[in-house]
């Protein structure tokens, strides 16, 4: 996801096993050369492929945006990872690509649920919404254009 025109995902790393059955979909995806096409379409992200024999496959993403908490400024970049093990069905290549796209499109920040209403000191330009407006019940407003 872009924040002020800058994509936040800076690095994607694909980890897989050369022999394990759970990595079959990732190996097929790498052999199909679709990763190269995917990377060419997204030049803002660095992609690495690493072998971890004896381990399940996953994709790890690192983001530009730093953690919001000011308590620990020594923390590194935000990191998310998603497992891609056992994607053995007919859509396995697409499932691996969807995982890459999902991580690429994230902003890196955690989702925050707003439990309280948000109040602002700056009033809305549009005005305050009220359910009694019922603009759809008003007669249509006709405009007349005059050439001068």
UniProtKB/TrEMBL annotation:
The keyword Ribonucleoprotein applies. One of its GO terms (molecular function) is structural constituent of ribosome. One of its GO terms (biological process) is mitochondrial translation. It is found in: Mitochondrion. It holds the Pfam family L51_S25_CI-B8. GO terms for cellular component: mitochondrial large ribosomal subunit. Residues 18-107 form the Ribosomal protein/NADH dehydrogenase domain. Keywords: Mitochondrion, Ribonucleoprotein, Ribosomal protein. It comes from the Eukaryota. The keyword Oxidoreductase does not apply. This is Mitochondrial ribosomal protein L51 / S25 / CI-B8 domain containing protein. It comes from Nitzschia inconspicua. The lineage of its organism: Eukaryota, Sar, Stramenopiles, Ochrophyta, Bacillariophyta.
